[in-house]
Every structure is written in structure tokens, then in C-alpha cells.
Amino acid sequence: MDGLGHEPVMRADVVRLLLPEPRPGLRLIDLTVGLGGHAEALLEAAPPDAQLIGLDRDPNALERAGARLECFGARVTLLQSPFSGMSEAMDRLGWAKVDGVLADLGVSSLQLDDAQRGFSFQSDAPLDMRMDPTRGESAAALLARLDERELGVLIRELGEEPAARRIARSIKRSDEPPTTTGALRAAVHRAVGPRRGRRNLDPSTLTFQALRIAVNAELDELDAILTQLPERLAEHGRAVVLSYHSLEDRRVKRTFALWAKACVCPPELPICQCGGRARARALTRRVATPSEEEIARNPRARSARLRAIEWLDAAGDEG
Ligand SMILES: C[S@@+](CC[C@H](N)C(=O)[O-])C[C@H]1O[C@@H](n2cnc3c(N)ncnc32)[C@H](O)[C@@H]1O
Asked: What digits encode the pLDDT tens for the residues 32-46?
């Protein structure tokens, strides 16, 4: 996560992994350009003819990124789009393949710190949570639409909240469904008390997370990108994903591991019969995390998990 005055998360690792060597005509995509922190670092480190597409679904973020990246002129194209629109964006620019893709998932500091966006329980504001405030259903509308059972399932699955049923009951049995962050937080506190668990988190943290993931279809978006990468990464192209919760990280881990696996024979076969080749190479041994120093400087980096791969298999997809 980045904000004005914040450095982008694991900046040096992202640059090192996406730009292993200066190559002419490099093409990069920042799927979550946010405030342009990573994009700026990449363009500064890349050869002067490198080009970058920056996507974000939040028009405010794009405005900030546009100002920050103005000095790079025509090397940068910024588009308002969910990142599931990556292939479409590439087609618009006539890019068949891309050399480097970055996804720094989740919300930006700009979104968290703007109380009116409704992402945070730190202050009372309308319960919105849409990254693109011009379309889709707000968190308040979602709460009003779901019944108690559906809401309980959502909070359990997307928040991994053990008290999901109790919380859903408290929300749906309030006099009116909550329409502000304060009312939602109060409904959670009524269900579970103002307890603070591990890491001293507010008890409504996981409920807010679940709603945000649902409102922005965050897991569907991630799945869409993981489906598009094999078709769009150039041979030796690289992808770096920064996740901030285990639901995302698990998906990335599983998919990258599958691509890096050569043999896909069932385990009961004594010798390989598929003759399979790995399609990608893992660039991070296990998962990479920010240093203690970075977390001390920027506590919001605390939960970051970085995974990276290099694509090997041009033949497999180009035919
Ligand atoms: C953590 S911030 C990125 C910060 C950025 N790396 C920087 O250095 O400034 C995440 C950004 O991704 C955007 N975002 C999240 N999910 C998205 C999606 N599915 N499609 C497009 N943008 C998305 C958010 O609007 C937010 O601006």
C-alpha cells in the first residue's frame, strides 16, 4: 500500500524482480497503479525506451498517478479499468505480450485515509467501500440485500471470521441495516464485545475485510488475472504479486506452484508419463515479506506477501 509520504511496499524487491536486466523495448503493466509509486520506481530503473500501462479502477488514484508520472510523457498510458481488463488494455495498445506485470493488491492509503470512502472504521462515514465509486453496489446496499444466512456465509468465507453467524445476526437484527461505518462497527461490537484478539485488531476488522472483498469482487478479479497471465506473458516475462491477506496469497501460491511443476501425473504413477515441462520458474523461494525496518517505517506493509515467477513457456501458448 502506498500513500503520499509512503514508499511503495517492497519497492527494491519489485524493481529487482521485474527488471533483472535492461532489455530494449521493454513493456510493463502495473495492474494496480494506485498513486504511481511502484510505476515511478520501475520507469526510473528501466531503459529509457521502456513503456508502461497503468490500470486502476479508482479514478482518484489515476489522477494522482497521472500527476506523479507526467514526467515520463508518452512512455506511460493510464487507463481506468478493473485489472481483469488487462488483455483488453493490451489489445488497445497493440501489445501481444508483456515483459513484466505487477499486481499490488488491495486498497491504497489514499482510499483508507479518505473517511468518506467508507473503507475504514476509524471514523464514521457512509458505508460505501467501492474502489470505483461510479459503479456497482455499495457495502450498505449489499448488507441490505443479503439475508442473515447469506451474510453469515460471506463474513465467514471472505473474512475468515469465527463469529460470523453471531455478527450477521446482530447486523440483520439491528433496527435498520447499518448505512455507516460506525453503525456497522457498533453492530459487530454488540455481537462479540469490544474484544481484541491476536495482533490487537478491532473486532470489526475481519467483517470490514469481508465486505470490501465482496463489494469489489476482489477474488474474481484475481482469478481473472491468473487466467490471463499465461496467454500474455512473453517468454522470460515476469509477474510479481503483492497480497495482503491469506485468501489472495493462497490463490497466487497455488497457481504459481502449478505453473512451476513439470510433471502433472497422478502421484500413484511410479514414473512420469505426461512428459510435462514447467511453464514457469518461481523467483521467490517460498514467500517474500517486508523487512522489520520497512514495517517500522510503514506499518501498513506488515501483512504484505510477495510472490514472483518468470514465464518459460512461449511455445505452449503461442502454438
Ligand atoms: C495497494 S494500492 C497500489 C499502490 C501502488 N502500487 C503504488 O505504488 O502507489 C492498490 C490499488 O489497486 C487498485 N485496485 C484494487 N483492485 C483492483 C482491480 N481489481 N482492478 C483495478 N484496480 C484495482 C486500488 O484502487 C488501489 O488504487
From this structure: 999 999 999 999 999
